[in-house]
Amino acid sequence: MEIKVLGAHMLESRDTRHSCFLIDSVMAVDAGSLASALTSAEQAQVEVVLLTHGHFDHIRDLPTLGVATLDRPGSIDVYGLPETLDLVHKNILNGALYPDLTGELNGQPPKYKFNGVAANEPFRVPGYQVKPIPMDHPIPCVGFIVKSDSGACAAFSGDTQGKILGFFEDSLSPEVLFVDVTFPNRMYPRAQLTGHQTPWMLREQIVIALAASMEPPRMIAVHLAPDHREQVALELADLAAELGIDLAAAEEGMIVAL
Q1: Can you state the percent helix, strand and coil of the chain, rounding each to 5?
Q2: Alpha-carbon torsion angle 122, 82, 53, 103, nearest 10
Q3: How many Å apart are CA 243 and CA 252, to the nearest integer?
Q4: Percentage, residues of the chain above pLDDT 70
Q5: Buried (b) or exposed (e) across 56-83, using 16+ Cβ within 10 A?
Q6: pTM of the prediction?
Q7: Which end of the chain is more exposed for a tag (fewer CB within 10 A), N or C?
Q8: How many domains does the structure of the chain reveal?
Q9: What are phi and psi of 37, to 5 degrees?
Q10: Phi, psi of 20 (to 5 degrees)
Q11: Residues 161-187 pLDDT 10s
Q12: How far apart are CA 66 and CA 100, in angstroms?
């Protein structure tokens, strides 16, 4: 399994992109930069999109990708909570702001096939087993554990205020967890208000796991606030050294091979 970090940040700029990960060139987790970070040829390879929730920075490039691949045969399967799919359909792919790519266009099959999922109920896509894990966030949100038929396994928290122990204790045993750590410790009130994590908040969960004899997987912090990235990275390094764990901040273009 090869995972490419297309977007590691919460905001878009010249140097940063919205949250998005590409697995083996064919499956995306979130779509914040699914078009802007890929060439036309790479966009045409995407077959599956997993959406953690319906906030704009996680769904933004769905319309662009859909229109860009209209001439490619077949539909792209989009999986998410029913609430997430409803937000996307009503607010973006609504036929006014952008074409409704979930229906036929000019006699062609729908570009997007929406598939509702439920927390803790695994499902299969070709070549992979996928399990949604419930997350705490201001709107309905799940993370995903993705295990390939070859045995490699990765997890993605989406946006969360904590409660990530489900990834540590799951029988699929992910080897790496891409986890939301948006703000530095001094911005705890904002993290709590917006439903995100600081390194201290992440530490609480890891300490609980270690006390219960759970071994945390490698962790890569994502959804970083660009203006505070350097401070978050320093605090993550301190946390990794204190607890003896593998933990660091992600960056765009990073490739993780499992």
Answers
A1: 30, 25, 45
A2: 110
A3: 26
A4: 100
A5: ebbbbbbbbbbebbeeeeebbbbbbbee
A6: 0.97
A7: C
A8: 1
A9: -95, 0
A10: -175, 140
A11: 988 999 999 999 999 999 999 999 999
A12: 10
